[in-house]
Automatic annotation (TrEMBL):
The keyword Ribonucleoprotein applies. It comes from Hexamita inflata. This is Large ribosomal subunit protein eL22. It comes from the Eukaryota. Pfam families: Ribosomal_L22e. One of its GO terms (molecular function) is RNA binding. InterPro entries: Ribosomal_eL22, Ribosomal_eL22_sf. Keywords: Ribonucleoprotein, Ribosomal protein. Belongs to the eukaryotic ribosomal protein eL22 family. One of its GO terms (biological process) is cytoplasmic translation.
Amino acid sequence: MSKTLKSHYVVDFSDAVSELQLNVSTFVEFLNSKFRVNNRKGRMSQNLKTEIKDNCIILDSETYEFPKSYVRFLVKKFIATSNNSAYRDAFRLVAHPKNKDTYVVKADVYQADEEEQKE
């Protein structure tokens, strides 16, 4: 009898990597430092498996169930607190229209175009 995954989410950084050369492994390091299990940081390694595949990060957990909104919160926090403050204005997080367990980090091209037209 096999165990079913309690939580399975995917975050697609392919647009962010091509636009600003964002390193996906820095997000995994950020997860290691910020992910909370039972209100305690630093317990991610035993409760969460992360896999990087083609600029996508796959988050699987068999022992700990966490909501999709927590993944959204962590990705937004990572974008806002990155070394480059331009990330916060350049990217936005969008839920994938067909796959409910996937988030896509997209370049916010429209906002940049509007700012250039104002100048």
